[in-house]
Amino acid sequence: MKISKILFLFYIILLPVMKVPELPFIGSKIQYCDVLFVVFLLFFIYEHIKAKDKMSVPFLLPAAFLLFSFFISLVFNGFDSREIIEYAATVYLVALYFSAVLLIKEDEYLCRCIRVWVLVSSVVCVIGILGYIAGLFSGSLNILTPQIQSVDKISSIPHQAQFYLRASSTLKNPNMFAAYFITSITFIFMIIKSRMARAKDYGFYIFVLSLHLFTALLTKSRILGPVFLLAASSLFILYPGKKYILLKIPALFLACIFLVLSFMTLAVWVFPVEFKPFKINTQKSEYLILSEAALKMWKDHPVVGVGLGRYNYNLVNYVDWDKAKKVLPDPDNIEWKTKDPHSTYLGWASETGILGLFATLLFLWLNIKNAFFKRDARIIALGVIAFLIAGFSVDILTMRHFWFLLGIGAVIFFNRSRCGRL
Questions:
Q1: Residues 319, 296: one domain?
Q2: Shortest CA distance to 168 belongs to which of 160, 158, 179?
Q3: 284 to 148, 292, 326, 332: CA distances (angstroms)
Q4: CA angle 386, 278, 271 (to 5 degrees)
Q5: pLDDT digits 0-9 by tens, 171-206
Q6: Cα separation, 304 vs 302, whole angstroms
């Protein structure tokens, strides 16, 4: 096996290990897998030059348009080293996408990548569950279960502890952990589908799927809606017609409940409401202030935005400070000013304008459309759609596992690789 392929498998293993030490200037933006990716890329380029392979690159023009639109945002708004790092991060994610497409050409290697991903993801699940149990019984927070509120000690009483504990395992936060499962669950269904087609037993992978869904529940994340919608939709693809209807209908019902809860959370961020019986007042929500600021930025800079990575820098100029003084416990604390608007669409629209948002959605639409034309890739299309739904409340474009899923979908469609031996 080529060195680049071995390194790529190690990249898959390291990808969910996102809790890294804070570094000067760049913070925790660079992960362990990113360092390995640079080494992989050097070997990959060298091997292709040496072999004189003719590389056919799909979606090159849409990807170039995406990078160009982001670059225009930089040029028109001015940039320094921090903005350059933000742009380099986007280039890196696009490079990850194309690396997967160009590297994975054989069916055997494609299957190996998917199996390694599911194995690693299952281990990450177990780690997350163990961390949750440890926090539940000890009454103390730990590195695997971050708190919802700023508390040093949680109650040792289980029903109170459950409110504070949220599993995150080796990923940065519970929402990213749940989003990571979208890629994992997509691959699990691909394995189940392959084994069904070959009349192979797939009971173990039903258990693995259940493990992932259970762990997703422990994240208590607003991404649960897309996660369970993906699972329910995949059941309808695997078992068409009325087969297992008693399983599919409850699964779809549960997915709808989580989706409604997810969009209710989003709605109360953007539209200030007050529920006195439940003591909920989103007129005093930090997220409402962040969303309002993003919309104001987009209104003032509709075409190219305020600049890539500049939402945080411009936030202080767009905040309603009269409202902020009533909402924020400490308005002068700089920490809240480093937060994003918790939305792919609001965030990228405010930073790159309608040009950048259109380029991004065009690239994603082309990937989804082409995936649906290939039977093996239809489940991947569902996974991408699940990510797009999650994008209403988190920034999916910075997630490496999202770009990896896009790359695998393109592998199956353009390279005609098959995953029938999973």
A1: yes
A2: 179
A3: 17, 13, 7, 17
A4: 50
A5: 988 999 999 999 999 999 999 988 888 888 888 999
A6: 6
